[in-house]
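INTERNAL AUDIT FORM
Audit reference: QA-55
Scope: verify that the stored structure record matches its stored sequence.
Auditor: D.O.
Record contents follow.
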Amino acid sequence: MAARATWKGFLRLGELVCAVGLYTAVSASDRVSLHMVNRKTGNRLSRRFVDSQTGKVVEREAQVKGYEVDSGDFVVLEPDEIAEVTPKGDKALTIESFLPCAEVDDLYFDRPYYLRPADAASQASFAVIREGLRSKQVAAVARAVLFRRPRSLLIRAYDEGIIATTLNYDYEVRSAAEAFEDIREVKMEPEMLDLARHIIETKSDRFQPESFDDRYDAALAELVRAKMEGRATAPPKPPPAKVVSLMDALRESAGMSGDKKSAGRKPGSTKAGSNRAGRKPAARKLAARTRKAG
């Protein structure tokens, strides 16, 4: 594998142990990256820490971390004090329990990683764990110290490898009851629900992540290209907003106003995502264009 592992250690299930590596599964490196520059000189700006009271720059050796206990009142924590409470990892990803995949609440998902054997000697043990998860259709909950913090991870079989997803702590997930507490009960006409079902049925499709467009990134890339080529960069005008009733909006969405033929359209017939597979992100195309121009 060409990529470098972000963490190396051992996957442990009881007495079964194999060397593994974690590889980042999601990366934003292909997005268009912008920097702050000096408008007058065009030079890139550097960020420095400044004392909020004196306004003077504080050099690295004088910088320490602190916890704010009151407005402007901090408890200072020295580097050796923080190091003392930082958990010491044993480089082990220890499986503690198993649960049905259907019971996993993805609200707790944090960041996915590819997990694969680190050497040839570990492939047999790795395959036993992977196929055990697959055959029982379960996920495993494992614990490890990753990047100086104890983390729980969800382990799932995926193709020839394993996906290890770090999980949010319970205190990090905000209450759904609080988020939805002021949503009032709505009494709807039966036709509204029938129209909603019809819209869902006619727009049913497969999960096609290759069809998900990052329109902001593409627009940034086009803006940079236009500036490089000296072209005009006028933003497109948004279409005028239409004011319609909820029932009219449902009927129009279901294709029942105007062109009635569209109401019988087959699911996925308007999708154009299939020809997008393999399309490079805008940032990567822009970088290739820039290199060619240079």
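Auditor finding: record pair retrieved intact. The chain has seven helices and nine strands.
Action required: none
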